[in-house]
Amino acid sequence: MSSIVKQLDYIFKPASMAIIGASDNVAKWGHMVLDRPLHTGYKGAIYPVNPQGTKILGLPSYRSVKDIPGPVDLVVITTPASRVPAVMHECVEKGVKGAVLISAGFAETGGAGKKLQEEVVKIARAGGIRFVGPNCMGIWSAAASLNNAFESAPKPGEIAFISQSGTFGSYMAEMAATKGYGLRMFISIGNQADLTTADYIEYLAHDDDTKAIILYLEGVKDGRRFFDVCKETLKKKPIILYKGGSSAAGARATLSHTASIAGSDIVFQNACRQLGLIRSEESFQIFEVAMALLGQPLPPGRRMAVLGTGGQAVAIIDACQRLGLEIPRLDKITSARLAAMLPAHAPHPSNPVDFAGSYRTAVDEANVVETLLKLDYIDGVISNVPVNPLLWSKKLDKLGKPELLEQIQKLVDEGVGQFCGLPRKYGKPIACVRWHGDASKDTVSIKLTEAGIPVYDTPEQCARAMHGLVTYAEVRRRGNHA
Amino acid sequence: MSSIVKQLDYIFKPASMAIIGASDNVAKWGHMVLDRPLHTGYKGAIYPVNPQGTKILGLPSYRSVKDIPGPVDLVVITTPASRVPAVMHECVEKGVKGAVLISAGFAETGGAGKKLQEEVVKIARAGGIRFVGPNCMGIWSAAASLNNAFESAPKPGEIAFISQSGTFGSYMAEMAATKGYGLRMFISIGNQADLTTADYIEYLAHDDDTKAIILYLEGVKDGRRFFDVCKETLKKKPIILYKGGSSAAGARATLSHTASIAGSDIVFQNACRQLGLIRSEESFQIFEVAMALLGQPLPPGRRMAVLGTGGQAVAIIDACQRLGLEIPRLDKITSARLAAMLPAHAPHPSNPVDFAGSYRTAVDEANVVETLLKLDYIDGVISNVPVNPLLWSKKLDKLGKPELLEQIQKLVDEGVGQFCGLPRKYGKPIACVRWHGDASKDTVSIKLTEAGIPVYDTPEQCARAMHGLVTYAEVRRRGNHA
């Protein structure tokens, strides 16, 4: 096992944890980072540390980390910056292995803070402690159900999110949770005084339960190492990046936000492209694209077929072509075969295929998608979510024919079952777009998601997701030829 | 009153309506277009017409529209295409004024259908009937609570949506409803055999309750008239367009979808830019941008100031600059004034201004935004939603200090009240971006929205909305100088 894995396991899978600066005052960080793990499933030992307290949140509290009876893997430090060197010394004496340094007031505040930060790094390094931060908002690790970053525990999942912005990162993660995206890890990296993005990526590369790594970065420390680690990691799993500071005024803002020098965006963009990092134009797209990369096979090429309804298919195709995906015309034999599967008034199927708003079953749609995936000149399919007439069940109930409802349910189950099996059967990905407004009621979307087929609200999200798959597939092919 | 207003009022504000082809069979259009207005608030008389029925959905049914005792303003026709000429003849005899022709099987199917369509147009024109469609999915008109397009009634609002795709249009409208966007009108325009997009826009230009017009179009019939009508309408209200078929494969798809010839996208793009139509790159953005144009004053220029938190502010600024908005540095006096309003460790305020995740009240934030709006070199502000500590009230409750909760609520109310008054006070717009995941619980967002300040999930949506305001402001200024 590489040493980084062993070291960072103490931070992300600690058997015990002390909260230094723990507090009963709900307005303080020392309260939040103690209260959150207590209520969101962390199973290890938790020790509050505070010079005053005897009991905090009902737990016995210690005056110093050194007074804790058992071993302490991880400390979370929220004390004022000036006290952190002394605290770190005590942690070294105690034999602590890792730290999350929430406290602010270090390099981000200028010269004196920078010196203080260097002092803390020196103490930690000499004492064998690796640490996250300072000036960060904490972590979430599904491996240990360890959460000190969020009010509620995130949904566990396969995406690891490394964020250089605490507030914005945790907002994106919260918004992702409302959309059903699960998180394997969240790391608010802060000033990266000790551990840097490259370290986290190297660690996550070894974590088999992390299937995709997403990044919000404003600048990169030690660019060469960052790109080297990314290159190695990309052999195993995709990395998707949103980089803040791509504009002149944005770069100026990153300087005062995280003291990052955003550097030339063109140079950075070229490096990303060469390596095959997937770069998002918009912040939240890192989640949307990651979702497709979790459960779908990588497409053999960039030639897509589309099953969609009217303007939706048009918008999918426009978005695909903007992103450089190809939409081949279908051959005559396939076109004739598909025409026989569509209602008479539907447009002649070339690409897209369109049921023209007519009655069809999920089985009909699965058959069309299967026909498309079989083609040797098609590398993946973008499809509307298979039809689910039970969304209108209020009306169908009116018919007073329970046997009809049962029959429809059977067709839905059968079609969706077939549909969900197609990506594995043909080794080609499917991405789906919704066409009913109220997603929460759509059991078909839920089934697709569970089977690893990503479902999106808009045609453009869907096309971007497929583009992410194509980009990463090309990286992996390059790797295999190298 | 222009003749188009009078004619189209019969369609969008009918006193009485007949459904021709009405049916008790829930799977039929003739059922849906009767059932929907019955259950979603239409107050006028509704007459089912069907050669067989005596009662449909509990209403007395007529064998012919001519048998209906009272006058009939509007007919909704769902009979097979071949019967439509005869039906239209009867409508003329009855003195019907307008029609929505749901039936498909006309020009979209080729030569014979095209002829049939021409025949219907001839009969209607000779008889003084204007009509929507054929091959469309119906309309929603808030003015008459008239809905035959949606399963549930849309939320009434100030956006009118003209869509060349029925299914995709109604999906977008449904999704908009889940996000709280209200609709004044929805028109599924179908084949535009009689009434065209230009006619609807001309009508909506005269409707004072329509504050923004959004379009999903694949092609334009009679481009000169379309652009002339847009030019006139833009003097009164904004038009936001998503055009399908901007790519080669997309254009091919529109041809088989609505027989639209998408034409050269560059020519079209240039015409839009010259006129000042706001063109969306992605489909759902037509709604997002429209939202900002409903309730905000038009900015005097394109110079924006940003109040945001960390990476959020960076992403806002990057997105603004991509769209050509300017982010001026703040002058020294203002910068010093703002610094005094921020916590000591916050970065020196230039632009963006950032509270650096510290404690502040909504009043503090309103004061910062007001300071920015006062500047003669700032034309609008993009801000995070003012802070609402009551989102954490579960924790605040724990304090057992109800007087503290009251005090916080007072500060929130005061700050949000001040904030909501700023756009009018300074004649400059504000757009807000959320920074809490669970929007449904955020009463502050709701208050802002009610006051006309649009609230978005992502920094990029917010920047696009501001760009829409800037684009439309420039159109109006050009108009004033012409």
Describe this structure in words.
2 copies of one chain form a homodimer. The two termini of chain A are about 25 Å apart. Chain A has helices at about 5-10, 30-40, 85-95, 110-125, 165-180, 195-205, 225-235, 250-260, 265-275, 285-295, 310-320, 330-340, 360-375, 395-400, 400-425, 445-450, 460-480, and strands at about 15-20, 45-50, 55, 60, 75, 100, 130, 140, 145, 155-165, 185-190, 210-215, 240-245, 280, 305, 380-385, 430-435, 455. In chain A, helix 6 runs parallel beside helix 7 (about 225-235), helix 10 (about 285-295) crosses helix 17 and helix 13 runs parallel beside helix 15 (about 400-425). Chain A has 3 domains: about 1-135, NAD(P)-binding Rossmann-like Domain (Rossmann fold, 3-Layer(aba) Sandwich); about 155-295, Rossmann fold; about 295-480, Succinyl-CoA synthetase domains (Rossmann fold). Chain A has about 475 residues and is an alpha/beta fold. At the A-B interface, helix 5, helix 8, helix 11 and helix 14 of A face helix 5, helix 8, helix 11 and helix 14 of B.
